[in-house]
Amino acid sequence: MTDSDITYTLYVQADPARVWQALTEPALTRRYWGLSFETDWAVGSPMTWVERGARTSDPEQVVLDCVPDRRLSYTWHTFTPQWAAAVGIEEELRAELAEQPRTRVTYEIEPVGDTLARLTVHHEGFLPGGTLIGMCARAWPLLASSLKTLLETGAPLPETGHDEEQGSGGHEAHGG
Asked: pTM surpassing 0.85?
């Protein structure tokens, strides 16, 4: 991690296709992240984030790169008042997050032998020392670990203080 980007790597006992599914299929993202994406995953396509009843869309919230089972990249989401209300973020914090530059998330998936995949999450473009990088630096290890646990055991990590069916979502877990 630097003052403007986060890189987190983990090994998952699953093939790259299964890791890809966990990153892109709404039924799986809801389980470990508590949200889903509405998109066709084509480069340039818009992405709508759906979390706790809030739908967040923005023309700059798009897929940047997509190579199934290998690489996925998109712009980080838009901090709307509706999103903030749905996840329990105070307006002052939401406004602060919304003023920071839009960031980019990239997932690299690499096979390691026949039964493992290396997943690297790279989140870049943060305002150095800003609130968002601090929130995301705490969130990515939890999210990645919950994805790994879901694929390896069939259940995500338990979430403290939230409905377990929502997975490890909430503003703490997605940096917003």
From this structure: yes
